[in-house]
Amino acid sequence: RKEVEQDPGPFNVPEGATVAFNCTYSNSASQSFFWYRQDCRKEPKLLMSVYSSGNEDGRFTAQLNRASQYISLLIRDSKLSDSATYLCVVNPPGRRALTFGSGTRLQVQP
Amino acid sequence: ETGVTQSPTHLIKTRGQQVTLRCSSQSGHNTVSWYQQALGQGPQFIFQYYREEENGRGNFPPRFSGLQFPNYSSELNVNALELDDSALYLCASSNDYEQYFGPGTRLTVT
To answer: In Å, how far is B110's CA from the nearest CA of chain A?
Structure first.
């Protein structure tokens, strides 16, 4: 079983739609969680950290469910510029390295 | 921009050769991590340096080695290059669990 699993997509949605991505992780002792965004042939960029209480940043909302070991990302009012690959990232216990999922590709269409 | 820089941006090497990739961390960050990203995959952790000492290593063979310098910049060295080493090599700098990536070096091994 992979340490971090994501649906690869692609998710094709119209502008203005709401889209949600889920991700599951295998190590229940994982401590920190993040969503990164990666544009084609570019580096990953930190989108947001994910806190136990959930957190929101504009149109983006992240949730963490420790009991079920999954993380979600909700994007409201999708823009064309949201088209990218979204990487679910977990920090395993005992080290500062990040474990990445393979990413979920989002394509927002006009 | 993150302030993390990498050089070179692109590199073509022949199987069996050696390569050195360089990374300058963001000002004030004392930790550098290196990742390998194959096409269509999430980044895979190679190793991490904290204050010039290796601070964790992923499942990569010993021919992948590194250094961190007193100014916290870092090098990744790969010996005896193999075709499967073709990938985007990313470095990330941090002071805590949030890591910020440089633009990467795209290595092609022929």
So the answer is: 20
